[in-house]
Design brief:
single chain; alpha+beta; Thrombin, subunit H; 1 helix; 34% strand
């Protein structure tokens, strides 16, 4: 079992991630994993678990299943309870780390896409007044030309 870092990036999981907690007496309960890092996370549970309970936490990621020892921390709300990993073997740690990195990359890519969309929207908006002025000038020139032709032809018809 490897040592765990003191500070690790946290990711909010996009999809509902089912999790199972197995207690030392063999009982089980299920919940949903909302936030995870290499040091712990946040679970949604139907009933809070006693603070300090030692459990085996199992959940499935896009890189495979993760099984680790966890200690339950004080509940934040009636149905949200944080935990910290107390043991996580090398393979589980690698799978969890790969999931976190993939999620962080998706998050960074999404932020760049949003920035690009915002920038292109601003550039498009800044072009609109120029286009309006250009079209207005062309329309005014066309109206002047038509008026001049009308007056010249009207004068010649007399």
């Amino acid at each position: 079992m490897g040592s765990l870092p003191q500070r690790a990036p946290r990711v909010h999981l996009e999809a509902a991630t089912p999790a199972v907690l197995r207690f030392q007496d063999g009982q089980r309960t299920s919940g949903t994993l909302h936030v995870v890092s290499l040091t712990g996370g946040l679970l949604s549970l139907s009933n809070p678990v006693v603070q300090g309970s030692q459990v085996r936490l199992m959940f499935l990621t896009n890189t495979g299943s993760v099984l680790g020892g966890a200690e339950m921390l004080p509940p934040l709300t009636r149905d949200l309870q944080p935990f910290r990993f107390v043991s996580l073997d090398g393979g589980d740690r690698r799978r969890l780390g790969a999931t976190i990195q993939a999620s962080l990359q998706r998050s960074n890519e999404q932020q760049w896409i949003e920035k690009l969309r915002a920038a292109s929207g601003q550039r498009e908006r800044s072009r609109r007044p120029l286009l309006k002025a250009l079209f207005g000038t062309v329309a005014l020139a066309a109206l002047a030309w038509v008026s001049a032709n009308y007056l010249l032809h009207f004068h010649l018809l007399k």
